[in-house]
């Protein structure tokens, strides 16, 4: 391993949960070990892989002493991330999914932004990548301009939850967090909710945002998010979709306790209606009457906020009205 370079005194812990991604993992890990920022520990938590991914992790650990290989029986992605968080010793924390990859200067750029702006969280842009060869990658763009200088936690929440206008803010992995955002002294680390199949990162990002006093946006895409057709978040599974709604309900409850401003609370309601509408469509296709009714009730619960925040979005409102008319 190379020694610390000038300006790289702070260590980054990168946490990568690994599970059966043998066709993608080499590219992922190669992109992380090749970062221009060298002072890193790369914590790979193999969550019971059976396809050879576990051997790829061990191979990288053998050739690069910054790679820490942890093997455990399959306990789920959130458990694997928590295992990584408990092992992390870095001044900064980052997350990478094992089927994605990053640009070589991602972490160098994010550390520079954190240190120049004395910020707690640095946010960057990302690309959507597709397995289909005829689909080019897409740079995810914010529809509205983001402040060029560092902004406070209140503004961060607006960026995170006005989701249609600030699409680059939605995920945990295109960010770098100061350790104090995640590790709260005697309280220990902020951990992922292991009861959720889907949506654990939603709740996690909300908790980290509440711990952030100052954030900075780097207007460049570094992270490549692969849209796999067989990934859990794209599968037509009602239980998993319900987990996502449960996650936003939990965010809603937590934000009430922290007296988050009404505008952000309305953005959360709009997101809940959005997920409720997709749940309704899926339930209608699967002929599940009870879930359809439950989803439509959620849509009606926040209909006023949804219509107000989507004023002028004719297609969105037309779809909303159509879904409310579904019957089984």
Helix content: 40-55%
User: What's the Cα radius of gyration?
Assistant: 20 Å
Structural class: alpha/beta
CATH class of the largest domain: Alpha Beta
Strand content: 15-25%
The CATH H-level superfamily of the largest domain is: Spore Coat Polysaccharide Biosynthesis Protein SpsA, Chain A
Number of domains: 2
Profile the largest sheet.
10 strands, mixed
**Ends distance:** 62 Å
What is the number of strand segments?
10
CATH topology of the largest domain: Spore Coat Polysaccharide Biosynthesis Protein SpsA, Chain A
CATH architecture of the largest domain: Alpha-Beta Complex
Give me the oligomer status: single chain
In N-to-C order, the SSE pattern is EHEHEHEEHEEEHEHHEHHHHH
Annotation field: number of helices: 12
What is the average per-residue confidence, as pLDDT, rounded to a whole number?
94
Based on CA inertia axes, which overall geometry fits?
globular
Indicate the low-confidence ranges by residue numbers. none
Overview of this protein structure:
With 328 residues, the protein is of the alpha/beta class. It has helices at 25-33, 53-63, 77-87, 106-117, 153-161, 179-182, 200-210, 238-257, 262-285, 289-301, 303-309, 314-324, and strands spanning 12-18, 40-47, 67-72, 92-95, 101-102, 121-130, 138-139, 151-152, 175-178, 214-227. Strands 1, 2, 3, 4, 5, 6, 7, 8, 9 and 10 form a 10-stranded mixed β-sheet that branches. Helix 9 packs across helix 11 (303-309). It starts with 11 loop residues before the first strand and ends with a helix. The model has no long low-confidence stretch (mean pLDDT 94).
């Amino acid at each position: 391993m190379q020694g610390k370079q000038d300006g790289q005194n702070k260590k980054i812990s990168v946490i990568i949960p690994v599970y059966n991604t043998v066709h993608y993992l080499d590219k992922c890990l190669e992109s992380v070990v090749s970062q221009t920022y060298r002072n890193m520990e790369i914590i790979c938590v193999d969550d019971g892989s059976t396809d050879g991914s576990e051997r790829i992790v061990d191979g990288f650990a053998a050739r690069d002493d910054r790679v820490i290989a942890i093997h455990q029986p399959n306990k789920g992605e959130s458990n694997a991330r928590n295992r990584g968080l408990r092992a992390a010793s870095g001044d900064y924390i980052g997350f990478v999914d094992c089927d994605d990859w990053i640009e070589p200067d991602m972490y160098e750029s994010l550390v520079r932004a954190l240190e120049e702006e004395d910020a707690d969280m640095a946010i960057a842009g990302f690309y959507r990548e597709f397995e289909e060869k005829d689909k080019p990658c897409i740079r995810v763009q914010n529809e509205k301009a983001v402040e060029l200088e560092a902004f406070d936690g209140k503004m961060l929440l607006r960026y995170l939850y006005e989701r249609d206008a600030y699409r680059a803010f939605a995920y945990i992995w295109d960010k770098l967090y100061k350790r104090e955002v995640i590790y709260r002294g005697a309280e220990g680390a902020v951990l992922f909710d292991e009861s959720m199949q889907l949506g654990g990162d939603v709740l996690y990002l909300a908790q980290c945002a509440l711990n952030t006093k100052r954030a900075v946006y780097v207007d460049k895409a570094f992270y490549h998010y692969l849209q796999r057709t067989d990934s859990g978040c794209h599968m037509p599974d009602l239980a998993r979709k319900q987990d996502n709604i449960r996650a936003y309900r939990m965010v809603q409850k937590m934000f009430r306790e922290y007296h988050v401003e009404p505008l952000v609370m309305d953005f959360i309601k709009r997101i809940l209606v959005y997920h409720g509408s997709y749940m309704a469509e899926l339930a209608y296709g699967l002929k599940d009457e009870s879930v359809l009714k439950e989803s439509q009730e959620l849509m009606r619960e926040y209909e006023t906020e949804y219509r107000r925040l989507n004023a002028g979005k004719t297609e969105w409102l037309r779809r909303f009205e159509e879904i409310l008319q579904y019957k089984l």
